[in-house]
Write a structure and sequence with these properties.
With about 400 residues, the chain is α+β, with helices and mostly antiparallel strands. The chain has twelve helices and 22 strands. A seven-stranded mixed sheet has the order 6-5-15-16-17-14-18, with helices on both faces. Helix 1 runs parallel beside helix 8, helix 2 runs parallel beside helix 8 and helix 8 packs antiparallel against helix 9. The radius of gyration is 21 Å and the shape is globular. The two termini are about 30 Å apart. It binds flavin-adenine dinucleotide. Flavin-adenine dinucleotide binds next to helix 1, strand 9 and helix 8.
Length: about 400
């Protein structure tokens, strides 16, 4: 009987909404509980790799993202002192994916599309102002506790998915370790309409420098001219208000393109960056997905993409378990496949990307940059590099795990 109960999902972020949609389309009733009164609107991720676009296409989401998103076919590695080092053309992936480019669209423009599609599913409910506060695992169900506008309530679920972000309540209640580390330096994120293309930047670029490296993403914003979003490392010794001091931020932007004019700054913030993976992603009828299960630095744009990959993988297996076509061991396969993709690829690549940009030894820096030049100039090697950095190789490898 319990298998007729809905799956309850904590969190209406991109991961939770994708879990809900993929389950609903497979005939599974879902209830999404979101703590906040609305979808979150803060500026976060926004670079979608080819496999993520493929996974969202059957739901019509990818097509709608294209109406506003920027197709980024080429990206660069640059050196602050020497300019362009290497340029990669994602068109080399044409035979491997129908989307041989990155699609740039703000996360807060994705989630309303997901929610709109989800609301058309008769078996899906979304409740805002519903914060999940606890759960009790029973033999054949899980009793989920929530609080809505100060009033406590309970929901009986067949399964509970914790897609409630980096500070996940569900993960904390499971008491599993969030293994890994936090980088000592915070990241400064700044957005400006100033057009970096006039300095030769492609819409995605990474600038190497031992102290002042940068990641550059052009985002569509409300429409042309769009916004250039830059991430810089911050001195760990300085307080936030010093880091966000306008003249200091202007100085960093000016340094990137050697300009003397002030930039128009639309948005700036500081955030702390972690490399962490939960030691367990499933206990009984409770599962973790997205940032609740793993966090990484944004160099390479893997965080949000991984959450979508988790959601689609999990929904596929959980729907079979819910319908009685597979036993719960199918969920262990979700954990094995997605933990391997996370640990062996996303964690490894994002750490490697950061180390590459911030290399302090000039000899090592030169050798690494030279290696990238050789890779970019050899179409076969460039393709392999792009298969990996676009998350295609890691996904293929993880799907071989049985
Ligand atoms: C400042 C910032 C910048 C980032 N930049 C990048 C980037 O450039 N590239 C990249 O790939 N990634 C980036 N990320 C990471 C990316 O945004 C995340 O990977 C992505 O949001 C993960 O989605 P999620 O749905 O798993 O979690 P979230 O988006 O965090 O969603 C979790 C949801 O759960 C809700 N919630 C929390 N607790 C509860 C509860 N107890 N009950 C019910 N609901 C709850 C929250 O309100 C939230 O809506 C950035 C993150 C931050 C914070």
């Amino acid at each position: 009987m319990s298998e007729r109960l809905p799956v309850v999902i904590a969190g209406a972020g991109p991961t939770g909404l994708m879990c809900a949609l993929a389950l609903a389309r497979r005939g599974v009733p879902v209830v999404v509980c979101e703590a906040e009164p609305n979808l979150t609107h803060d500026l976060r991720a926004g670079s979608f790799h080819p496999p993520t676009q493929e996974m969202m296409a059957p739901y019509g989401i990818t097509e709608r993202m294209h109406q506003h998103g920027l197709q980024v076919r080429r990206w660069q590695i640059r050196s602050r002192r020497g300019g362009l080092v290497a340029e990669f053309d994602l068109g080399l992936l044409a035979g491997a994916t129908p989307y041989p480019y990155r699609l740039h669209l703000e996360q807060h423009r994705l989630t309303p599309i997901q929610l709109d599609v989800l609301r058309k599913e008769a078996s899906a409910e979304v409740h805002f102002r519903h914060r999940i506060t606890g759960y009790e695992q029973k033999d054949a169900s899980v009793l989920v506790h929530f609080e809505s506008e100060g009033i406590p309530g309970k929901l009986e679920a067949s399964w509970l998915i914790g897609a409630d972000g980096g500070r996940s309540t569900i993960r904390k209640l499971l008491a599993v370790e969030f293994e890994g580390f936090t980088w000592p330096e915070q990241f400064l994120v700044v957005s400006t309409p100033y057009d970096l293309a006039q300095h030769g930047f492609t819409m995605n670029a990474y600038v190497a420098d031992p102290t002042e490296w940068a990641a550059v993403f052009k985002m569509p914003d409300a429409g042309p001219p769009g916004l250039w979003r830059l991430a810089f490392p911050c001195d760990p010794g300085l307080p936030d208000d010093t880091l966000l001091d306008l003249p200091a931020v202007q100085q960093r932007l000016k340094g990137l393109v050697e300009s003397t004019k002030d930039f128009e700054i639309r948005y700036q913030s500081i955030y702390r960056v972690h490399q962490r993976v939960a030691t367990e992603w499933r206990r009984g009828r409770v599962l973790l997905a997205g940032d609740a299960a793993h966090l990484n630095n944004p160099l390479g744009g893997f965080g949000l993409n991984s959450g979508i990959h988790d959601a689609v993988n999990l929904a596929d297996k959980l729907a079979k378990v819910w319908r009685g076509e597979a036993d719960a061991s199918a969920l262990e396969l979700y954990v094995r496949q997605r933990r391997a993709a996370t640990v062996d690829h996303v964690q490894a690549m994002s750490i490697r990307n950061k180390r590459l940009l911030e290399e302090r030894d000039p000899e090592v820096h030169r050798a690494r940059m030279q290696e990238l030049v050789v890779t970019a100039n050899d179409p076969q090697r460039a393709r392999e590099y792009l298969l990996e950095s676009s998350m295609i190789a890691g996904l293929r490898k993880s799907m071989e795990i049985r």
